[in-house]
TrEMBL record:
GO terms for molecular function: oxidoreductase activity, acting on the aldehyde or oxo group of donors, disulfide as acceptor. GO terms for biological process: branched-chain amino acid catabolic process. Keywords: Oxidoreductase. It comes from Triticum turgidum subsp. durum (Durum wheat). Gene3D superfamilies: 3.40.50.970. PANTHER family: 2-OXOISOVALERATE DEHYDROGENASE SUBUNIT ALPHA, MITOCHONDRIAL (PTHR43380:SF1). It comes from the Eukaryota. Residues 130-231 form the Dehydrogenase E1 component domain. InterPro entries: Alpha-ketoacid_DH_E1_comp, DH_E1, THDP-binding. This is Dehydrogenase E1 component domain-containing protein. The lineage of its organism: Eukaryota, Viridiplantae, Streptophyta, Embryophyta, Tracheophyta.
Amino acid sequence: MAVWLARRAVRRLASELRSHGPWPWPLSSSTVPVLGVPSGDQSRGFCSVRRFAGDSAAVEEPENGLAAGDLQFVDFPGGKLSFVGEMNFLPESQRERINCYRILDDDGGTIYSSRFQEVSKELALKMYSNMVTLQIMDTIFYEAQRQGRISFYLTSNGEEAINIASAAALSAQDIVLPQYREPGVLLWRGFTLQEFANQLFGNKLDYGKGRQMPIHYGSNRLNYFTVSSPIA
């Protein structure tokens, strides 16, 4: 039943993607198209955009790859954290806080174009479709766990883009050693909703033959090591 619901939701997703018109969709300061929600009410539903409110800090000279006036920060309770447009690997730092690297501003515009690689429409749609599919799958299987149909489940809420983008940047031959909030990598590589369900329910088609806890996925075919849960 859970797999049937997920497949129906994905078919609905494909239909709605086509209805939103040609790519690229315009990015406003508040929303992108939200699937499953009428165009007049885009303030709720899957994939709504949430952002920290950044304040512009005027600077005289460009800093860390950002144009003058583009430097922004988040005012956390413990202090301000600046955004920077240049990535640096810091084995050690005497600074109280390490800056946050990003390449898009609050309106979805490119900050550091020399490090930005534009993807094709087809790849962008596939990535977006996989992110929404992952969220739909999480919703259905999490509710199944709360109903007592499966014993254990953790979602990837808020980590969909990290899952899919990192998987898209790898080749199919790259070996992945995951933790249990990264099923999007498997989804991207072709693991089906039925295969996810087989593992969660521990049925006879589960590759681990029911010997692993739910969400401890693994696939030799997709170069994805079985998830391990060390217990201290």
